[in-house]
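Structure tokens please, single chain.
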Amino acid sequence: QVQLVESGGGLVQAGGSLRLSCAASGSIFRINTMGWYRQAPGKQRELVVDITSGGSTNYADSVKGRFTVSRDNAKNTVDLQMNSLKPEDTAVYYCNAAFLYTRDGYKWYAASAWGQGTQVTVSS
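Here you go.
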């Protein structure tokens, strides 16, 4: 199947910027949608943004105009540039991918995968 490895994150002051990266690897697969979710302490995991293989994006209202997602289909990577960060952006950020995989090259199965999560902390 697919494994997702995230990098980036850390501690930044309010108004600062951070960049998250996520790379997918594994056996034969085709990735459809990739995205970033976040989970703050005591809250449910929420969508930050997702992006289809065709480049269509869907941003949460809370990050529109501040965060920018980009994707490289050839490299199976997705990045999240986060600008004008606010303390309320503090959370663990998770990469997600919805994909198709095959074991024999004929039958394809749908599945999804999550990264291990990376902490983003924005101080006021």
